């Protein structure tokens, strides 16, 4: 059946049909995601592979942060182990006729924890509508089969990835990596600190319904679009959250979501899906390397986004099945 029942009202709604209007451009962008010349740019690598000489005494390094991030990007993009990454980079150097040294797998692994990953971000055009969400990535422990058979073991461990996404441009503009001990609401202020420029609106789910989150959003003169928890009461003092409660009481939860633009938060959920397309596991053992591994994925996804994204328009409704 091509119908959905709204749990709040019991009303039956039809699914919407969409059409991509820029398919030819998006098709080329999907092809270019696997183009090695985008990830291994001969011209820029030739000039930035080796770091500048140190000021004063000291031995000059062989590999800049650009060199290490290039290696880790290719490793993550094609899901390679360190040794295979070393072999691939060496072959690319030969194919490009570049007489540059290649870090061995041990050096890559060591530098992975020290790297300051550069995540490409384009300047914002006007105030930003920020959508926020989090997800978990496995790091080590039992496999899925054993979990299904015997339950979760003590060694099954996760890292939480918290992302802030621009609702309009659909790129990552804030990222935090934490253990599972950190709640979503504790991380939101740090995510907002990473965002430059004016913020118009912040949309997040009920896990962010806290005094700290609302205060952090208010400090940026932004509008909070966060549904209050079940059984929520007013905070008093003409708080912005009380306005949300009043609007929900007047319009209903669905009406408030439609009028406030809360449904655009689904872009953050879609970003989590895109993030996990690069793997639902972090392969590094140490926490600082896990953080940089996640940051490298964010850099890759933003590059994907800037290559081209689909532009879709609503063209009608799907007729219900007979």
Automatic annotation (TrEMBL):
Residue intervals of the Transposase DDE domain: 32-142
Superkingdom of origin organism: Bacteria
Pfam families per record: DDE_Tnp_1_5
Coiled-coil regions, chain positions: none
Matches recorded under NCBIfam families: transpos_IS5_2
Protein name per UniProt: Mobile element protein
């Amino acid at each position: 059946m091509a119908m959905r029942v709204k749990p709040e009202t019991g009303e039956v709604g039809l699914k919407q049909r969409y059409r991509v209007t820029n398919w030819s451009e998006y098709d080329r962008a999907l092809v270019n995601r696997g183009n090695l010349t985008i990830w291994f740019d001969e011209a820029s690598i030739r000039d930035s592979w080796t770091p500048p000489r140190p000021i004063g005494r000291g031995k000059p390094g062989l590999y800049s942060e650009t060199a290490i991030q290039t290696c880790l990007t290719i490793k993550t993009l094609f899901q390679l182990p360190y040794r295979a990454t070393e072999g691939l980079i060496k072959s690319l150097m030969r194919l490009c006729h570049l007489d540059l040294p290649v870090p061995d797998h041990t050096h890559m692994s060591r530098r992975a924890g020290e790297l300051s990953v550069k995540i490409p971000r384009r300047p914002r055009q006007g105030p930003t509508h920020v959508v926020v969400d989090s997800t978990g990535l496995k790091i080590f422990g039992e496999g899925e089969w054993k979990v299904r058979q015997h339950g979760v073991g003590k060694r099954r461990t996760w890292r939480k990835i918290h992302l802030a996404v621009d609702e309009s441009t659909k790129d990552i503009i804030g990222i935090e990596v934490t253990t599972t001990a950190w709640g979503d609401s504790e991380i939101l202020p740090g995510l907002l600190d990473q965002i430059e420029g004016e913020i118009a609106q912040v949309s997040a789910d009920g896990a962010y319904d806290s005094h700290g989150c609302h205060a952090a959003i208010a400090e940026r003169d932004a509008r909070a679009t966060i549904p209050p928890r079940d059984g929520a009461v007013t905070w008093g003092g003409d708080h912005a959250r009380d306005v949300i409660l009043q609007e929900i009481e007047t319009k209903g939860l669905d009406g408030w979501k439609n009028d406030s633009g809360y449904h655009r938060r689904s872009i953050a959920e879609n970003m989590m899906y895109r993030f996990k397309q690069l793997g639902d596991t972090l392969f590094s053992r140490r926490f600082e390397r896990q953080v940089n591994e996640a940051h490298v994925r964010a850099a890759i996804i933003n590059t994907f986004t800037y290559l081209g994204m689909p532009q879709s328009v609503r063209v009608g409704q799907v007729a219900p099945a007979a």
